[in-house]
Write a structure and sequence with these properties.
378 residues; Rossmann fold; 10-stranded mixed sheet; alpha/beta; hydrolase; Lysophospholipase, alpha-beta hydrolase superfamily
Length: 378
């Protein structure tokens, strides 16, 4: 596995004809992110890039190109019908799925890398039917937010989360507040939580992005570090690599046609998400509860060895942690073919975290099933 798979796993997932799973019409498709040129795929390119970037690193003094906050901490955050404005004036597009007029519970959704708030549409609609209001933003640098595709830094994403929590607490002072983080969104929550406890009532981690550098091969780390210091502006696509984030082909096709889903990823953004995943992996021992942790055995985006390392670091006897390992689950769990089962589990846990989940797939993070799944994962 080379640098092109680092790019692929961190990217977004468009759909092209290839050799993936069969669509309903019988045509074969492959869900693959548009973040690496086809000509760059292959081990020869990987090894060559690793050697080249090592040399370039020695001759380069450049730093990763992170967008700085334009006007830090000069205003009070505010929230409107379709946006939330952060303390530096940056505007985050906002979507709301309204439940009860005065909801007892609200959920804030944070999407994955290169995705945007629409990722929570299926879950938001179902939770609204149960009286729960769901908010989701386009995080900084994604979707319809300013400077799409640019990385603004792990600390800034965590600060945005704290701003959002404060805004929702003020808008719904009597409601219980839960954060749902999918993939990168989960890494943002874990990073913020490790800095200081979050004033929330519960946490939902959906296939959290914990693919840290120490779980990557050395040549991937070397290639990424060299590339970000020499070609931070370079945009990569993922053609030629067959990894899929979901078995829901129609959903992936819709993402591929959606202009708000980023299709080409800058090298400095890849470096940034890797930095965020480092922090998320390191935070496992400080996980706040109550928490619902979800992962799919078919996940091809967050490698099993990385997730299992995160799992092994979790507190062993915390009764506030519910772990669900879906045998047929992929990376985009609430949007997979079996997404209805996942969404039902989330709704049930929000109603009462102490009752068994409808899917019956919850298990101990250190029990026999998790141990059998992780096996000898490094």
């Amino acid at each position: 596995m080379g640098f092109e798979q680092t790019v692929h796993r961190c990217g977004v997932y468009a759909l092209r004809k290839g050799h993936g799973g069969p669509s309903p019409g019988g045509t074969l498709y492959s869900a693959r992110p548009n973040i690496l040129p086809k000509a760059m795929a292959g081990s020869l390119w990987t090894n060559g890039l690793a050697a080249l970037t090592f040399v370039l690193m020695l001759t380069s003094c450049a730093s990763p190109n992170i967008v700085e906050s334009p006007d830090t901490h000069t205003r009070s955050p505010d929230i409107g019908a379709d946006h939330a404005r952060m303390d530096d004036g940056y505007r985050l597009p906002l979507r709301v799925w309204t439940g009860a007029e005065r909801p007892r519970k609200i959920v804030l959704g944070l999407h994955g890398f290169n995705d945007y708030a629409n990722a929570f549409a299926p879950l938001g609609r179902e939770l609204a039917d149960a009286g729960i209001t769901t908010y989701a933003v386009d995080q900084r640098g994604f979707g319809a937010a300013a400077l799409p595709g640019r990385w603004h830094g792990s600390n800034r994403l965590a600060a945005d989360l704290r701003n959002l929590i404060d805004l929702l607490r003020a808008r719904h002072p009597d409601a219980r507040l839960y954060i749902a983080g999918e993939s990168m969104g989960g890494a943002v929550v874990l990073t913020a939580m490790a800095q200081a406890p979050l004033p929330i009532d519960g946490l939902i981690l959906i296939a959290p992005a914990v693919w840290s550098r120490d779980t990557m091969p050395w040549y991937q780390r070397l290639a990424l570090e060299g590339a970000v210091r020499t070609l931070p502006w370079l945009k990569l696509t993922g053609e030629g690599i067959r990894l899929s984030p979901s078995d829901h082909i129609e959903m992936l096709q819709a993402m591929g046609a959606d202009p708000l889903v980023i299709k080409a990823t800058r090298v400095d953004a890849l470096w940034g998400i890797t930095d965020l995943m480092d922090r998320a992996q390191a935070s496992a021992g400080r996980l706040q509860t109550p928490a619902l942790l979800l992962y799919g055995e078919q996940d091809e985006i967050i490698p099993k060895n990385a997730f299992c390392r995160f799992l092994a670091k979790l507190p062993g006897t915390d009764p506030g942690l519910t772990f669900v390992l879906y045998e047929h689950g992929w990376h985009m769990l609430p949007r997979d073919r079996q997404g209805a089962r996942v969404r039902a589990d989330i709704a049930a846990w929000l109603e009462d975290p102490d009752t068994p989940l409808p899917s019956g797939e919850e298990t101990s993070p250190h029990g026999p099933r998790a141990s059998a799944f992780c096996g000898n994962a490094p």
